[in-house]
Design brief:
mainly alpha, 2 domains, three-stranded antiparallel β-sheet, two-stranded antiparallel ribbon, DNA-binding, Fungal-type protein kinase domain-containing protein, DUF6698
Amino acid sequence: MSLVAPTREDALAAAQSQPIVQVGKKWRCTDGDESSGNSEDDSDEDVYRSCGRAFARLGDPGFVKIFQIVEQAINMIPEDSEDENDRELTERETRMAESWAVLTKIIPGFKALMFDPANATRRLWRRKLCKSINAGVCDARSDDTAGLKFKILNWLLEDITVKLLPPIPNDEEIKSLRGWNHPVTARLLTPLDYLADDNTYASVKAGRVKVTAEMWPRFLYAEGREYKPDDEESGLFMGHLMIRATKHIFMGPSSALKGPGYCRGTHCNARRINMNVITPRALAYVAVQVRFAISDAEKWATVDRQFSLAKFYWNVVAFFDDGEGQDVLDFYNHELFGETRQLQGLSDDLSDDPDSNRPSASERMKAQRAQKRARLAAPTTPAAPTGMAAPSTAAPVPGMSVA
DNA sequence: TTTACCGTACATCAGCACAG
DNA sequence: CTGTGCTGATGTACGGTAAA
């Protein structure tokens, strides 16, 4: 393992030819020697911790432990097997297999290392290594949570010149003014098919109304979008909070309110993790971060009241299964990377063929998509969705950019 | 022991002044 | 006008600490 020059050009050039990860302020080039496992364990831990940071944003923010992902991969997918889909995987196993695919892309040589027969019995060693990755996952998630915690208050309203009423102080540590306790955040949390009024908020707080991850919250949708039972898809993921938070996390906090492609400096997260296109999991990560940030939950937890962040995450990921939602990804790619982005990196479709047990949100969406296709296939084309900036299937919607 | 949070160190860039 | 160097701003990684 050797150091390479830390300049942007060198790093990017190196990235074209060989795997490279940034460890702290240093750039490390992994040349395969790491698999020998005979050198500095501490620096290896740093490498894995750093990779864990990338994995939080691209793979899984900690809903499944790395060790489980690795053990499943080792136990279920023989290294030399061409056919990895011999037996049907459960939904959970499928997601873990996808996570494994992301992990092996982020950490060059990781797959070979794990499948090396010499390491087959080193379970404790694997556990330690996975712990390092896990630590990185927690670091990144925690950093993003902390970063969004106050910044997001400035973007709650689509029009940032309008004052938030009642105000939430920018230095208010306690989040009790958010969530269902504030009309603006409560409205953003309210499922689209629920009336966003005080009555609903009170009912949710009292537990009379359950808001679960099967319901798409309003913040996912473009402002002003109204509920249509037969079309929950148009305008989905076009919410201003989603767009701003995605930019905040991947292009840096100063990019949140800027136009497409803006990135101050060269060391934004997207570049650090070599991300050139948005992925469904990256978008799902943003969604759970936003959900947590506007809730009144003080500590990161996978469940807030009846709302499971984990389930929400996987529902968002499932939305993009089978290559669906490409128009949404195109839109975000344009917002993040502008016109000059390069199509490379971790953009590969990591979703396997999903089978039966889809969450209900996804099932609804699929049914609606089928209906929509049927309508489009009909001889007379119906009118386009009214008003809202529902992206067409043809092209991104540059005009959707927030000011 | 694990996790979340916070403060600090470090890398990088943009803007500016200045010399040639 | 162009190149160079300095400085402040920005953003992330990481170590330390407290709490669960």
